């Protein structure tokens, strides 16, 4: 009787019209993506035409057996949730006939599927909107490194796993030369393995696993990892500088090793002889001389470093002199300086002698040249004087002869001349 009265009231209130309403604000492709354990809103908003009344809205979920009723809202009787959905869902609006969107409080992966928003209107009948819900999960991932040993054959160096919906993608960020192999399962799990031939130069190199997924909007998730390669020690001895002398104190030798892992055991020995008294080996690889050095400390010392994968051996030849090298160097330097000064003085004296000799030679040469010039000048003057005398005598003789042959008158003329 109540239903009949409700229908009669609707007939009286809403006259018959020939237009229909429509769904508005529909999601793209009628699909919604949501995250597990998050609140999800399935949109449904029916816009009735004028004089059209939404009487009831019901949500259904598709199952293998048909459609499972979730919740309904009547414009007079209110809301009702059904079965297992009770307490998990509600309408997004206090007036479901205006905004019929469905809210799932905590979305589960099992909620994924197709949902129908069924609208009963008067007087134009029923309208349906189907929404597909896809539930994503944030990836759960891990990286498992492997400790390798130098010399091993080609093998796995690390593995990375991830599980998510939809299935994630995995990749390796590294400069190492190797190969990766991926494997996936239907439940959204995927694994990847990275393999290579281990060498000591690879130790400590980056081998990161990257997880790619639509939920990781800031970029891939990075699992940082550095490759670990164990190798035997590569030892050497330090501490000897070549200036060990009798009486020197606080002398020590150190066994330095670069193996991986670091050596924890060191052994010292001296070839052909036992370690001299007063020498103390320490666990860190140091050989301490707890007394002044003596000539008997000379010899070849050997250090053996050992780690989990092998041993490394290093040797050093020690020579202990009677005197410090600085003293010997000082005496030698003094002798060299004295020698250099002596040679310098000799060279200076030689230069002075050569300079003086050259000066005297030049001076003697000049004096000789001047003497020669004077001699030549004197000779020239003597010759000219002799020539004048000869010319004078000859002139006087001719004059006397001519005087006897001339007349007295001519003689007087010549005399006047």
How would you characterize the largest beta sheet?
A: 9 strands, mixed
Regarding CATH, which class of the largest domain? Mainly Beta
The CATH topology of the largest domain is given as Immunoglobulin-like
Residues in helix, %: 10-25%
Helix-strand makeup class? alpha+beta
Radius of gyration of CA atoms, rounded to a whole number = 61 Å
Distance between the termini: 202 Å
List keywords for this structure.
single chain, 417 residues, alpha+beta, Immunoglobulin-like, nine-stranded mixed beta sheet, four-stranded antiparallel beta sheet, 28 strands, elongated, disordered N terminus, disordered C terminus, cell adhesion
Describe this structure in words.
The protein is of the alpha+beta class. It folds into 4 domains: 2-136, Immunoglobulins (Immunoglobulin-like); 146-230, Immunoglobulins (Immunoglobulin-like), CATH 2.60.40; 235-321, Immunoglobulin-like (Sandwich), CATH 2.60.40; 335-417, no CATH class. The chain contains 3 helices and 28 strands. The chain has helices at 2-13, 325-405, 408-416; strands at 22-23, 31-35, 40-42, 46-47, 53-63, 66-74, 78-81, 89-91, 102-104, 113-122, 125-145, 147-149, 155-165, 169-174, 179-184, 189-196, 207-212, 221-223, 228-230, 235-238, 244-245, 252-257, 265-270, 279-281, 286-289, 299-306, 311-318, 320-321. The strands form 8 sheets. Strands 2, 5, 6, 7, 10, 11, 13, 15 and 16 form a 9-stranded mixed beta sheet that branches. It has a 4-stranded antiparallel beta sheet with strand order 20-22-25-24, with no helix packed on it. The longest helix is centred in the last third of the chain and has 81 residues, at 325-405. The radius of gyration is 61 Å and the shape is elongated. Residues 1-19 and 397-417 have low confidence and may be disordered.
């Amino acid at each position: 009787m109540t239903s009949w009265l409700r229908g009669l009231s609707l007939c009286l209130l809403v006259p018959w019209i020939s237009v229909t309403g429509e769904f508005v604000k529909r999601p793209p492709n009628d699909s919604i993506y949501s995250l597990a354990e998050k609140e999800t809103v399935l949109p449904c908003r029916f816009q009735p035409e004028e004089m059209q009344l939404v009487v009831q809205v019901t949500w259904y979920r598709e199952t293998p057996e048909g459609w499972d009723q979730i919740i309904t809202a009547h414009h007079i009787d209110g809301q009702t949730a059904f079965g297992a959905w009770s307490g998990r869902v509600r309408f997004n609006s206090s007036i479901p006939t205006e905004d019929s969107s469905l809210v799932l409080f905590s979305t589960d992966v099992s909620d994924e599927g197709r949902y129908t928003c069924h609208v009963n209107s008067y007087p134009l009948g029923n309208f349906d909107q189907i929404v597909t819900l896809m539930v994503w999960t944030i990836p759960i991932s891990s990286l498992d490194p492997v400790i390798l040993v130098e010399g091993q054959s080609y093998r796995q160096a690390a593995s990375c796993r991830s599980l998510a919906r939809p299935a994630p993608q995995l990749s390796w960020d590294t400069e190492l030369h190797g190969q990766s192999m991926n494997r996936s399962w239907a439940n959204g799990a995927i694994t990847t393995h990275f393999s290579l031939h281990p060498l000591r130069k690879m130790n400590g190199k980056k081998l990161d696993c990257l997880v790619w997924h639509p939920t990781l909007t800031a970029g891939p998730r990075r699992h940082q990892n550095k490759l670990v390669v164990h190798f035997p020690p590569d030892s050497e001895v330090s501490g000897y500088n070549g200036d060990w002398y009798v009486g020197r104190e606080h002398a020590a030798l150190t066994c330095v090793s670069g193996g991986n892992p670091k050596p924890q055991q060191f052994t010292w020995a001296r070839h052909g002889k036992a370690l001299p008294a007063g020498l103390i080996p320490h666990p860190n690889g140091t050989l301490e001389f707890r007394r002044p050095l003596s000539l008997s400390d000379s010899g070849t010392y050997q250090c053996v470093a050992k780690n989990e994968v092998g041993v490394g051996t290093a040797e050093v030849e020690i020579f202990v002199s009677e005197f410090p090298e600085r003293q010997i160097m000082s005496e030698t330097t003094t002798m060299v300086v004295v020698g250099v000064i002596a040679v310098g003085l000799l060279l200076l004296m030689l230069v002075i002698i050569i300079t003086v000799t050259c000066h005297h030679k030049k001076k003697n040469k000049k004096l000789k040249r001047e003497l020669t010039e004077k001699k030549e000048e004197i000779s020239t003057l003597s010759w000219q004087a002799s020539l004048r005398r000869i010319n004078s005598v000859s002139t006087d003789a001719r004059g006397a002869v001519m005087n006897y042959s001339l007349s007295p008158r001519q003689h007087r003329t010549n005399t006047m001349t």
